[in-house]
Amino acid sequence: MYRTFPLACLLLLLTTACSRSVDTPANSATQADRPRIALVMKSLANEFFSTMVVGAEKHESENAGLYELVSSGIKDERDLGRQVALVEEMVASGVDAIVIAPADSKALVPVLRRAVQAGIVVVNIDNRLDADVLAQEGVKIPFVGPDNRTGAKQVGDYVAAKLAANDAVAILEGIPTSFNGQQRKLGFEDAIGERGLRLVASQSAQWEMSQANTIASSMLTEHPDLKAILACNDSMALGALAAVKAAGRDGEVLIAGFDNISAVQQAIRDGQIAATADQHGDSLAVYGIELALQLLATDQTAPEDRQTPVDLITAEDLP
Question: How far apart are the first and last CA of the chain?
Answer without folding.
Answer: 26
